[in-house]
Specification:
Shape: globular
Helix content: 10-25%
Number of helices: 2
Structural class: alpha+beta
Mean pLDDT: 91
Bound molecules: zinc ion
Radius of gyration: 15 Å
Strand content: 15-25%
Number of strands: 5
Order of helices and strands: EEEHEEH
Strand order of the largest sheet: 2-1-3
Length: 111
């Protein structure tokens, strides 16, 4: 599975290698800022679409790195997950993003 490096300053993403376990932090070739690593599922908005970039940045800062998020998580009495269903769609607007983060916060990837 590949991943992408994202620069919020330049609003660009760069495809990187496929070895998700061995990713390294890297700097943006244009501005030198440290980039954020997300999964290849991230679809970068148009460079001029600042609103959508802000939504993506917000989601990433909250630990949603465009990995699969499950709409339904079934747990038994002990709290162990026994089933997962339906991938949730990543939101496009800030309002939806805030709801998304609240709803799925247990599935965030905290570094
Ligand atoms: Zn940059």
């Amino acid at each position: 599975m590949g991943h992408k490096n994202v620069c919020f300053n330049c609003r660009k993403s760069y495809n990187q290698g496929t070895d998700w376990d061995n990713i390294r932090e890297s700097k943006c070739p244009e501005c030198g800022a440290l980039m954020k690593q997300v999964t290849h599922r991230f679809r970068p908005p148009k460079q001029s679409d600042v609103k959508k970039w802000n939504v993506a940045k917000f989601l990433m800062e909250q630990g949603f790195l465009y990995h699969h998020v499950w709409e339904k998580v079934f747990k038994n009495e002990k709290g162990e997950i026994y089933a997962l269903a339906n991938y949730a769609e990543y939101p496009q607007s800030m309002r939806e993003a805030k709801e998304f983060v609240e709803k799925y916060k247990e599935q965030a990837i905290i570094e």
